[in-house]
Each structure stands twice: as C-alpha cells, then as structure tokens.
Amino acid sequence: MTKGQQTIQTYDSGNTKHKWDIKTLQQKHSILAEYSYKHSRIEKGYANRTLYINLSTNEIKEKKVTEQMKKLFTGGRGFGLKLIWDSVKPTTRWDSEENELLITTGPLCGVTQYPGSGKSLCLSISPSTDIVCDSNVGGFFGPYLKFTGFDALEIQGKATEDVLIIIDEEKHTVRIETAPLEETNSHLLAEQLTHMYASEDTDLSRQKISVVSAGKGAEHSYWGCMNFSFYDIRRKAARLKQAGRGGLGTVLRDKKIKAIVTKVTSFDGVSNHPADPETLARVGTKLHEEIRDLDRSQCNMRAVGTVHLVEIMDDYDLLPTENYRFGSFPKASKIYSTEFFKLFTKIIPDGCWHGCTMACAKTVDGYTVLTGPYKGQKVTVDGPEYETCGCGANMSLWDPLWILEFNFYCDTYGMDTISAGTAIAFYMEMYEYGILNKERCNGLELCFGNAEAVMELLHRIARGETDEFTQIASKGIRRVKDWIIEKGWGDPQLVNDCGMESKGLEYSEYVTKESLAMQGGYGLTLKGPQHDEAWLIFMDMVNNQIPTFADKAEALHYFPMWRTWFGLNGLCKLPWNDVEPADNAETDEPAKVPGHVQNYVEYQNAVTGWNVTKEELILQSERCYNFQRALNVWMGRGTRTDDWIPYRSMGPVTVMEYQSRQERYDLQLLENLKMKKEKIDQLSTEEKVQILYDHRQNQYQKLADAVYYRRGWTPNGVPTPQKMKQLGFTDKKLLSMLQKKIDADEKAGLNVWGGVYSKQEKPPTKTLRYWEKW
Ligand code: SF4
Q1: Could you identify the atom of ligand 1 that is nearest to the CA of residue 357?
Q2: Per-residue pLDDT, 386
Q3: What is the distance in A from the centroid of ligand 1 to the CA of 359?
Q4: Range with lowest mean pLDDT among 13-17, 367-371, 552-556, 563-567
Q5: Distance between CA 252 and CA 260 in Å, rounded?
Q6: C-alpha angle with apex 276: 270 to 279, nearest 5 degrees?
Q7: SS3 for 43?
Q8: In terms of Cα–Cα distance, which of 382, 472, 393, 475 is closest to 436?
Q9: CB of 457 closer than 6 angstroms to any ligand 1 atom
Q10: Which atom of ligand 1 is nearest to the CA of 573?
Q11: Ligand 1 site, residue 352, Cβ cutoff 6 A
C-alpha cells in the first residue's frame, strides 16, 4: 500500500484508532500560492532571513536579518517585536487585517546538546489585551522553522477560506493551500497532517513534521492557544505543547489558518553551526549530568513534571482555590503529584525537544473521554502541568480525572487552560453570591466543584453557541465584569476586586496576597499577569530576602530582564532553576543560580561567536523589554493605570477570607500598621478588611514607584527617550512618540513620584501622593 492510499491508524497507546483517507483529503486542496527559495546554511545560530506571508494577497517573500537587527533585538521575541513595529499601526487591533502573527526562534533554538533549547516565541496583538502578547512554546516547530531556513515566520492579512501554510525544506518551497475537509480540533488535525506530509509511511518521516493548529474553541473565544506538535515515536502519536497566553490561537483562526506545517529532511546536533562546538558540548554535558544526578532529590521533574508544585503551593498557602479566595484546601491532596504519577505513562525521555533530559512533558495515554463530541474515545492527554491543576483547584475540582478532561478539551479545542480556568473560577464565585445564577448562565449551574457544568460551558463555546452568556463568558473576565456591572447585578467594587485579570489577561495560578513583590511580578508587567516575568514569592514571602521597596524593585528589574532572555534565544526557562547545582545554596545570590547563568554566557558565546558577559545578557533583554513597553505606550497603554491589579491579588476581599486567616491579618494590623491590640479587638471584621484594603493598595502604588524608578521609566511608567537612546535605539519615530507622551503626562500632572522615598532617599521630583488621584 502506498502512502497516499493508506488509511491511517493513530496511536499505539491503547487509544481509539481513527481512519482517514489521506488521499481524498489532500485531493481537495487547491494551491493558492507557491514560493521557491534557495537553501542557505544556518551560521552561528542564525538563518539570517525571515519569512513573510500575507494571506490577503497571497504574497510570500523573504526579509533579510541584518547585523544591526541582531545587535538590537538578539532574536526570538526581540525579532518579533521589531517586525510588528515595522508593520502595524497604533490603531491595529487583534482582528485587523494588518495584525500580525509571529512565530520566532532565537540563535540557540534547535541546539540538541543543551537541555531546553527548542522553544518558539509567538507574538500578536491580543484579543484579550489589545496590546502585543508574547507566549513561549515547546514542540518541534521552532527548530524546524529554522532548519527550513528562517529565523521567524511573519503572517499578515486574512484568508477567505481555511488554509494551510506548508514550509517544506525537502522541496525548498512555501505553499498556501486550501484545506476544506480536514478536522479543526488539534488532537485529530495534527495527526492527519503529520501523516499527510510525511515523505514516507514511517515513524522517522513523521518525526520530521511539525504542525501548528488551534481548534473550535479558539474560533469562538478570546482564549485561543496555538498547539505545536511533536511526533512521539514511542507513542506513535503527534503530541501537543501550547502557546497558551493572550488568545494567539484566536488570531490564528481569525486569519483562517487551519494549520501551519514545517517539514525538514534531516538535522543533527550541529545544524545551528555553532562557532565553538566543543564548548557547547562541554556546557551541555555539565547540565545533563546535574539533571541526571540532582533532579530526583530536587524537583523530580523527570517523574512528575511541573505538578510537583501542587503540594508545595498547598503547603505554603499559595495554591489558588475557589477563585483565589484561599491558598490551600482540605481536599487538595487528591490532586497532589502522587495522584498524577499513578496516571502518567511511565515512558521517558519525555522531552518536548531533542536533548532535553529534564523531560517534564508528561502524558496520560489511553484516557477515556467523559463528555462532549469525543465521549467514550481513548486519547492521549498532554499534561496536566501545574497551572492546569491550579485551575482545577480554583474551580474546586478535586478529581484528577476531571482535570484531565478539562485539560484534554482545552487543548484540542485550542483554548488556554489558564485563562479558561481562571475565568470560570470567577464566574463560579459570582454564582455563589447570586450575582450570576442559572437563568443568567443560560441554564448552567456554575457553582464551585460542578465539573459537568464546566465541561458543558467549554463545549458550548466550541460549538459557537450564540446565547448571551456563552458569548460574553468566552471573551474572558474583563468583559464579564463589565457585563455584570452594566446589568446592575452586583456591587461594582466586589466584582472588580474578585475578577482576577489585569490588562484584560487572566491571572496564572498563584496566590499573591502575602507577597507584595509578586503582586508587582504580575501587575508591573508587559503583557499581563503571567508568571514568566518574575516569580518572587519564595524570595519575598518565605525567605524574606527582599524586605525593602528598593530590594523588591531591584528584583523586579533583574528577574523580568533575566527571564526575558530565554525568549530572545529560543530557550526553556525550566533548566535554569528547576534544577540547581549542588553548591548553589553556598553562592552569593542563590536565587539567580549563578552557575547556570555562567553556563548561558558560555552557551551563547559558543553558538554565536560573540564574547558577551553576564551583564550583556541582561542588556540584551533590557533592550527588548523597554522596546515592548514603548510599543504598549504607542498603542495607548503601558502606563500606571494599565498596571492596575485586582484587590483579590493583594488581600482578603470578603469577611470570610479575612476570618479564614484572622490570626495572620490581625498580627499584620498590629506589627505592620502599628495598631494597638485593644483597638484591633474593638473593630468589626468589615472595618479590618477596609483598613487592610487601604494599606495594601497604598503599598502597591509605592512599589510601582520604586520599580518604575529602577527601570528608568517616568512616574507614569513610560520609558524615557534618554533610556531608549542609552539602550541603542535611534529610531526617531519611537523617540518622539515617547517624548510626546511624557509631555502630555506632564501637563496632566502625572509625572510625579508618590512618596516611596524617605528623606534620605530623595525622589527625583516633588513628592505627591500620586495614587490618591488615581
Ligand atoms: S524542561 Fe520540559 S518544557 Fe522545558 S524543554 Fe524540557 S521537556 Fe520541554
């Protein structure tokens, strides 16, 4: 039987077998455009060109990567930001024709000697936030994109019918094809296309294909994620990793892209053609050995992946339960990593790119689906990861099987588990208060713990049902808050305080009430509350290593810059600090993991041939970070008002929350606010909630002052032209845009600091309690 005639059978893992006639599916494709390109060798980590596709005009072309572009933007997310800046307008919105969707690599992406070197960075203007959102993802697509000959893929315009984009290294062509008959949901579509485009009917051929897709949920919500496939030879299945945050899958489907396929012929450990392969091998081997020897006694990622965090978060009162009201729960042990370990298929290595000995990409194979269109079928569930378990806790779902069900459908429908889970948890709290009810939720009883209702809501969204609740609920917390307030159903302050979003993006899964620095780690960010900029809870709350505003500001400068660096280079953050050298605790700054920072200095130099220091790595990130903030300002955001966070992330909103941790909060009134014990005892809980409320809001604004000052921004959070020039930017359009904004803020009285500085530490301009005007 030839490949074209085969009926394919997916999965060897006890999963339901599907049969498709690949030939018939493919016969219905029409080629809309084809572009031939010349092969060119990757040199020192760079392909030195990017690929541009316009789906409105079917134009396909190459763009050159200049030395100046590398110097200013490094690669990955930096390249993505530069290409967006060159192509969109400040008025461009997520569904505008000129909005772009970018998938970028970095100079280290595709290396197989150093663990965690297969990440792509995806960017677009987000439907949730109306600013640029970046999201990182594993899987094979990023490395393959580079091996086909491109450092980044830039897609603009919209097709008029469902299309595929195929980037084929074998033929050196890029094609746009219609794809009318293929599935849309990712667990099936990735299988179909992997089999369709593999050169031969072998696992090795299928392994050379990677597919980016989203599903029906991405079409009908603002939570669309992009699924990046990697063919797993042992499971004989196309597995999925997600670029989850910010609705980028929604943009993919809005452009009518059914999938993007890359196909490579061959690659090896030196396909990146590093400048110094010996150093690269040495540094990589060192980390491999550390993971081999230390992971088991540290995070145990090789056995259970990131779910090892569930019990730690529960222990420290940081696991979000019932919409972040509490940080631990009596039933939490039901979803500890030990429970998922029983369900995970014990096959390693489980890396999402070759050479990742950390191998944290766990799966449950042969899972029997409980609800919806695939009810009764056996499937592979990729995950769950910690965040998805946190969503389970937040919705009060304490059965691992329901968490798997939620995980599977979010993935195949192309919906971000974090945004969906955090949003539904908020809807559940509103339901508990009677602000939402069965009638307002179109018949759904969305109370905490109702797993069937959660799944039914996901299915309704994926079906594109048009009732008012499904339509609004699928757009996320910010829209639902506005809807509830507009209808007059609830106290606006309560609604705003409980809805865990900032900038329009839903929070990821950590309770931050007792860590002011982590409140900043979520709020004083570029894209919104995602923990990939900074995770400071232990440094701040547990170890008390950053007690002053200046300390916290320094951490909120260094760690976001450091973590940004992974996204410039195509790296996974996990091998940096989810395994630590044996002597890390004895170093001067263990939180930075200095031994691994030094690895990264040597690693980047070994690939690129540069001669950078660890300080220059931070400078690379600082350029990108400030440039992205400037883009936010350009799009009418990126100021202090936009860095607002809901009070639920700062402290107890309700009397019940306060009373659940009364001893802790009373002690804070005594010690931090210097109130007298007799006075505290006379106060009602409502009064104590209010006192804490005012205090913590005030602390957050002081923190914002300190952080902006440290970052070299104005008191309204705007990077100054001087700062941008210092970082090497000379673009007149950019510099004058920032100056105009600063002038306008000056006129509006917004360029003044707010009282964080003591008499010894004088603020740069006159002191005004800025936030009181806010
Ligand atoms: S550490 Fe985990 S997520 Fe990161 S590259 Fe390795 S397998 Fe993928």
Answers
A1: 6
A2: 97
A3: 6
A4: 13-17
A5: 10
A6: 100
A7: strand
A8: 472
A9: no
A10: 4
A11: yes
